[in-house]
Design a protein that fits this description.
Elements: H1 5-17, E1 28-30, H2 35-40, E2 46-51, H3 56-71, E3 77-82, H4 88-92, E4 100-104, E5 110-111, E6 114-115, E7 118-119, H5 126-139, E8 148-149, H6 153-160, E9 164-170, H7 173-195, E10 201-207, H8 212-217, E11 225-230, E12 235-239, H9 245-256, E13 263-264
Parallel strand pairs: 1-3, 2-3, 8-10, 9-10
Antiparallel strand pairs: 2-4, 4-7, 5-6, 9-11, 11-12, 12-13
Length: about 290
């Protein structure tokens, strides 16, 4: 899956900051002492890079590895081990060249024959790594493209923590019904795939009327619509075009490339705590008899 020019520029900037192998705030550092705990006792998918500090290819990979770790934080573990400072596991896996990337699929990591693992042979960029991880999780029956509903401050903070927070403003379920809402969410997931999973954006949705402070602060008027927030630059933009993958992707790409002038804001609004959608059609509460 190809990333757009704006995303590649962001990746290049990240590469400069994370040029040391094994760096990146969301990359898990491994040693012989904790490999078993962090990898073999981990029930999820674990991607492990074995590197040497002096390795040029490892330095080239560093930014992409860090970007992948951040893109799938909480869903897939991206870890790194200095194979020159640790001997037991690099030797066990026959590591002789750098970087060597192994992956440990979700579920059991060991059986009676030993440790279960395989060698990653795919593209060594964030798009390739993240897409591969998504495919492996899908094979395990896990969808990592879940779109979170903003039902409290924690969910909102999680979204705006990324460079671009995409909040999809959906009609009330009274108006769309469960089938219509699921169609909107499917559209959002398709757009995420079109952008590439390594895109520096987080995605969430909110129901019309459930977060009035959000609607007021950012002048939200479209349902369905898309609100893009850049917390670091105190900027936002409301997509007013059609709710299609093509049009919404075009807006996100234009914002990331600086081709759209976004509005500014001073402070982020505070979210209310609401009940999450139960996945069903709206049922009106029964009225009391008098």
């Amino acid at each position: 899956m190809k990333a757009v020019a704006g995303v590649l520029l962001l990746a290049a900037a990240l590469l400069v900051r994370c040029e040391e192998p094994g760096s990146g705030e969301d990359v898990v550092t491994l040693s012989d002492a904790d490999f078993r705990e962090k990898v073999l006792e981990n029930d999820g998918l674990v991607m492990v890079e074995f590197y040497a500090p002096w390795c040029g290819h490892c330095k080239t990979l560093a930014g992409e590895w860090a970007k992948s770790a951040s893109a799938l934080k909480g869903k897939v573990t991206f870890a790194a081990m200095d194979a020159t400072a640790n001997e037991e596991f690099p030797k066990m896996f026959g590591v002789s060249g750098f970087p060597t990337i192994l992956y440990f699929s979700p579920g059991k990591k060991e059986d009676e024959e030993g440790i279960i693992f395989d060698t990653y042979q795919g593209a060594r960029d964030a798009d390739g790594l993240v897409d591969f991880a998504g495919e492996q999780m899908a094979l395990a029956g896990v969808d990592i493209t879940q779109v979170e509903e903003i039902v409290d401050q924690t969910a909102f903070d999680r979204c705006v923590a990324k460079k671009y927070c995409l909040i999809f403003t959906l009609p009330h379920v009274i108006d769309s019904g469960a089938e219509g809402r699921n169609a909107y969410i499917a559209n959002i997931k398709e757009m995420m795939s079109a952008l590439g999973r390594s895109n520096p954006s987080s995605v969430a949705w909110v129901q019309s009327g459930s977060q009035e402070a959000l609607e007021t602060a950012f002048h939200v008027s479209a349902f369905p619509g898309m609100l893009v927030i850049n917390k670091d630059r105190s900027r936002y933009h409301n997509h007013v075009g059609s709710f299609t993958v093509k049009d919404m992707s075009k807006t996100v790409r234009a914002l990331q490339a600086g081709r759209i002038t976004a509005s500014t804001f001073k402070t982020l609004p505070t979210m209310e705590t609401t009940d999450p959608w139960d996945g069903k059609d709206y049922v009106a509460p029964e009225e009391d008899d008098y």
